[in-house]
Amino acid sequence: MHKNFKNITAVVVFILMGIAFYENFQLMPAYKGLGEGVSDYIIRSGLSETGSLNLITAVLYDYRAFDSLGESTVIFGAVSGIVLILSRKMLPVSSRGLSFIVKRTLGIITPFIALFSIYVITHGHLTPGGGFQGGVIFAAISIIFSIVYGSAFDYRRYSPQMKTAFETVGALTFLGLGIAGIFMEGYFLHNLGFLTAETGTLISAGSIPYINMGVGLKVGAGLAIIFYSMIQKTFKEEI
Amino acid sequence: MMSLRLVISYFLMFTGAFFALVTVLGLLRFPDVYTRIHAGAVVLTISGVLITLGTAIYVWEFFLSAKVVLIGIFFLFSNPMATHAIARASYSRHIALPEEYEIDAYSEYLRRDENANT
Fold first, then answer.
1. A106/B81 touch (CB, cutoff 8 Å), yes or no
2. Contact partners, residue B40, CB within 8 Å, separation at least 6
């Protein structure tokens, strides 16, 4: 009885999913060739529809936002797998790091790296860049901490719990904007109309900058977690 | 007729390019790690700074020039720092053996440090 119930549920779920996919594919336009298909449409009317000067960001976070959600889920899966595989081993913690000169110089430079990553993330809809690129720059700060100042410094200043919290906040921002799209515009991840402003200003382009921030936090924290769990053995202590 | 600003910027950029050429010559012709690192640290730094200064004078717009000058300042910081880290690592990993050199002031410095500790 129990096994039958499971099978019947699976069959019903698959049939419903098939109907949903069929209905969605019915809505897709037919292939019209490269010259007059979707790409030409996006180039012509992408700016007026999304308000984002950077058309790649417009495609990533408005037209194909569902794909980007899948990509960030892939990053989440990679982080979970790596942490799961490597978490059994104890990490030797190094507290000495590199020499005094390197520490002082990077103490001057690191705030500017953080500022640059924030710039790349928040101007993703105006200039080249965006959440993924800025997130990678953000993750470089954690790598600098653990190589130059020793992984104990990285643990103290930017603990794994904080990284996990950042990643969760990023993913929840993305999902929350998607659900807000359902309630306010009628479609999942639809661009929020009330946030649009004059094209070219910092706070414009609907929900694209906020999705950028979410993806930036998620990618940055995810790559930092990957790096932190991969330093099995920090290099030998310097003399 | 070129203005004085363009002449200055071209002069700075060509001097920087000349120093970059000297860097490549030094990297190819010097015998071992430390002298090559010396070429990469000293000459390449002044080359990069000169080229960024020339570019900043060439574009001559406040924000663009400020950005380019900032890039030059970061280069001025980071390139000697990176070469310092490389040299220190190659000394402590024995990539270039300290015994090969007649003068090894760094090991004397380290030993003096140990003596001071004990």
1. yes
2. B23, B26, B27, B79, B83
Distance between CA A199 and CA A150 in Å, rounded?
Answer: 45
**The two three-digit tokens of residue A182, written as one number:** 């359902």
| Residue A186 per-residue DSSP state | S
**Inter-chain CB proximity B78 and A109 less than 8 Å:** yes
In chain A, % of residues over pLDDT 90: 6
Phi and psi at A196, nearest 5°, equal -70, 145
Alpha carbon B27 to chain centroid distance?
12
State the smallest CA–CA distance between residue B16 and chain A in angstroms: 24
CB contact under 8 A, A105 and B77: yes
How far, in whole angstroms, is CA A200 from its chain's centroid?
23
Asked if the Cβ–Cβ distance from B84 to A102 is below 8 Å, we say: yes
- Predicted TM-score (pTM) of the model is 0.76
Burial label, A214 (beta-carbon count in 10 A; 0-12, 13-18, 19+): buried
Contact A239 B84 (CB under 8 A): no
Which residues in chain A have Cβ-Cβ distances shorter than 8 Å to B85?
98-99, 102
Q: How many CB atoms lie within 10 A of CB A59?
A: 19
The predicted pLDDT at position A90 comes to: 58
Beta-carbon contacts of A237 under 8 Å, excluding residues fewer than 6 positions away, are A94, A96
Tokens read off for B33: 């790690």
Report yes or no: A113 at the B interface, CB cutoff 8 Å.
no
| ipTM associated with this complex | 0.73
Q: Check if the beta carbon of residue A137 is closer than 8 Å to that of residue A116.
A: yes
CB atoms within 10 A of CB B62: 8
Q: Which of A114, A92, A99 is nearest to A235 (CA)?
A: A92
